[in-house]
Every structure is written in structure tokens, then in C-alpha cells.
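I hope you will forgive my troubling you with a question about protein structure. The record follows directly beneath this note:
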Amino acid sequence: MKQLNIVFIFDELDCKCLHEILTIFNELVFNKFSVSIHNSLTLPSLAMKIYKTNFMPENTIYQILGKPYNDISQSYTGGAVDVYIPHNRSESIYSRMSKKLYYYDVNSLYPFAMASTPMPVGRPKAFTGNILRIDPQAYGHFHVEVTAPDNLQHPIIQQRVKTADGIRTVAGLGTWKMWIYSEEMYNAMKHGYKFTVIEGYKFEKGYIFKEFIETMYNYRLEFPKGHPINDIAKLIMNSLYGKFGMNPENSLVEIFDTSDSVQYDLLKDLMDNLGESIQDWFQIDNHIVCIRDNVSRYTYSEDQDFYHGLDVNVAIAAAVTASGRMWMTLLKNSSEFNLYYSDTDSAIIDKQLPSHMVGTALGQFKLEHVINRAVFLAPKVYGFINENGEEIIKVKGITKSTLTNLHVSDLEALLSQDSSKEFTQEKWLKRTIKGTISLSDVAYTLKVTSNKRQAIYIDNIFEGTKPYYYDKI
């Protein structure tokens, strides 16, 4: 392992250029949205400030804490990333003939979901029992018992499960209990799923993001693709929903010098008044390091019955991602084409989509590639050659320099059962406290993985996948 001591030296001209860039950016944001970028350390925090200042309706976003947060956050999962058919050879991997594939991507999937679907607003109302018997269109987040149809090739309801490779988000079959967004539940009913509601939280509906998304999308279109403002507007538009999914029960680290009488008294007051919020503590010489729940930032307003301090609401974040998954079900279990691979906002199929689904508007699909030869080994691990002869390899966790030595033919060789490819790559490891950065060689094994769907081998060749039953994972 090589250890490097890195010293960053900023030239005076670099500092001036950075200052000018930030000044211009601040002027652009302020002139457009009457918001200063000062005190916004990230684009998501800037997105939240812009939304709160210009677009957020009053008294709609309730601050969800405690048990409701813990319950509803279980329904907060991302997109479905899965391999269904590992290659596009006509009969087997040894065939010279290949099916033509079409790689489609959704235009701004999550912003489209935010703008086009209602969000849960107001104070959640807890209930127990099957509310659908009283209100068949009840809206909110529910704890349910689910039964999936046995013949479903592409299950559309997913949950986090413990596998041999750790916690994974799996869309499986069987009967199980979970928390789910009501609209995703109703959509799944159309595909043959059956639900029994056990308990949950009802919400009112509200279109609270439509104006924000439309404003940002139109602002983005004022600049050509690749322009900095186009990219910034896209990031702001895409990152807002994630702020609502933040854990409000964050931690605070405080250091007290016990040799200082004032700090020692502050420590005693903390122990006396907020002792239950302390998660852990340890001593370094005459200093006490205390890690505690940051409860002091929340105040309660009886007249509004709202928590103020952090504008977060996991019910909204979970509704956005669920709405995105619902939209992607348009490409699942279709009799019109075969689905080879899916990602959060993209899919690879063997037939072109009808013209009314394709375009530049929010939520429409755009054709990214026409593929002549492809292989899919695992989620985020695939490669293809498009009709222009470009070879594109995607392997999560691999450096760009390593990817240059990988080819589609290398991935195809790994379709043979129990085959793998091992190599090492350099990885930077930083130790902030020591102020050092280490450069080490890390081993990486590339192979077929089947921790989300069960691999199907024919004559020792990876030829397909099928969904797991949850009780057999």
C-alpha cells in the first residue's frame, strides 16, 4: 500500500476565478428565484430553499417523526434494477444471429412523477383494520399483507430483504407483509396482486410540485444540453425529492473540555436535561466527546400542529419513488415485447415503443441506443455494441481505466456457469483524521450474480432469470 501526503495549493488566480464563478451563479439564482446561494452547501439544499421561497404551499408538508416515520420509511425504496434475459443471441450464446434491442430512457422520471401525481399532504391520520372496506380509494401509506400472482414473470412490488449477500431490494413472489404507498398498491391490483390492509396512515392529496417542476424544466430548456445552467437546473429538479426523504432524527457531535469550568457546566446541564438523547460518549484526555440525537432543533406549534425545523416528509419521498416505479411498469409483463434489462428510469427491450410514448416531454421515453450485441451479467453490470459500432461497458465499482480493458466478448465468456474474471485496480482510501490518502490495490471479481432474481442455466450457460419466492431467499 502506498501512502501519499496530499497538500492542496490554490493559486491566487484559481481563487479569483472560483470567486467570479460563484458570484455569477449567485446573481443568476437570485435574479431568477430571489434566493441567495449563501448557506446552501449542496444543490439539494439550494433546491429546497428555492422551493420553500417560491413554490411551497402553506401548511401542507407535515413534519413526520417517531413511529410514523419508522413505519412509512419502510415503503421508501428506489428503482427496480434487474436482469431478465442475459444476452440477445437468437438461440444460444453460440449463435451468430442476434435480436436487435432498443435502449429507452425516461425523460426526468422523478420530476415527472412529482409534477403529474398528487402527493400526501397535511397531518397523517393513523388507523387500524382494513380501511378499504370503508373507503375503497383510501389514500396514504398502508401496512398490508400481499399475495403476488404465481405466473408473474416481472413482479412489480419490491421490498428490502436479507440475502446471503446482505440487504437487497427484491421484487419477489409469495405472500408477505410490508408497508406500501396506496397508489402503488392500486396499480399492482391491476396486475393480479391481492392486498389486505392491516393498518396505516391516511393523507390528503395535493399537487405541490407541479409549478416548481414546470418552472425548472422550462428554465432548463432555455439552455442547450451540456450548458452549465442546463445541468444545474436538471440537478435541482431531480434532487429536491431526496431532501424530503432525509432522516429527521439526525445526530449531533459535541466536544466538552472538562478542564474548563464553563464547558464542564454545559456538559452537566446536557446530562441533566437531555440525557436520554445521548447515544454514546467517550473520553480523549480531558475532553468528553458526546454523540446525541439532535432533538433541540424541533419546536412545536399548537395552533398549526406542525413540527418546524426540518422540512422533511418521508411520505412524500416514498410517494415520488413509488410513482416512478409505477410508470416503469408500462414496460413490464407486456405481450408486445420481451424485457431484457431494467434500471430505475430505463429499460432494454426487443421492439420499438409506439410513437405516442416517445418524445421530449416529461415522462416520455427517448431512444438512447439501438443495440446489435449485448450481454447482461447482473444489475449495473452489462455491455453492448450499438448500431454505430460503439462498445459501451457498464460495471459498477470499476474505474474508468479498468473498463478500457474490458470488452463485450469478456462479459460473454462469463455467461458460462461458475466462470469469473479477477483483476486488481487501484483505489484511493482517505483517512481524514490522520490527514492521509492511501493508494492500494483492491481485488475485484467479475461474474454472474443472482441475489435479486434466480439464475437459469441451460447446458451450463446463463440463459435467463426468474423471480424468487421470498420464503426461499
User: Anything to note?
Assistant: DSSP finds eleven helices and 23 strands in the chain. The longest strand covers residues 365-378. Residues 12-33 form the longest helix (22 residues).
